[in-house]
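hiii so um. not sure if this is the right channel but i have a protein structure encoded as tokens and i wanna go backwards to a sequence. like what aa goes where. can anyone help
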């Protein structure tokens, strides 16, 4: 499963972002004061949108994330000149491997109630 993280703005208006997501995507959406969690349990895809301008996806490919970012672009309070991003991949097993350079004894699947333990 791939994890992509982006800094897309200095600040995101979560109320506007939530309405844009509802209008343009078929996702289950939960919003708190600081973050929106949108998910498609069938396709095992999740996105977290933080009011500080960060966006993190699980299970999305980079080309799929572009559509999310374009949709959210009009929800940004302040744009930034250059968007930054990071990515890593992981596979579930007794020893979960994440690239680059992180090995984790166990990461539960996204909708599991188990907790993950990170080790570097």
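sure thing!! here u go:
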């Amino acid at each position: 499963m791939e994890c992509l993280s982006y800094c897309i703005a200095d600040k995101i208006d979560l109320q506007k972002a939530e309405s844009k997501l509802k209008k343009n995507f078929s996702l289950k959406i939960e919003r708190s004061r600081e973050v929106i969690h949108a998910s498609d349990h069938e396709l095992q895809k999740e996105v977290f949108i933080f009011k500080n301008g960060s966006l993190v996806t699980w299970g999305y490919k980079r080309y799929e994330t572009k559509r999310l970012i374009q949709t959210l672009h009009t929800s940004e309070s302040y744009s930034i000149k250059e968007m930054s991003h990071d990515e890593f991949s992981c596979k579930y097993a007794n020893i979960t491997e994440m690239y680059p350079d992180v090995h984790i004894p166990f990461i539960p699947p996204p909708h599991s109630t188990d907790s993950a333990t990170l080790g570097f």
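oh and Residues 14 and 92 are 32 Å apart (CA to CA).
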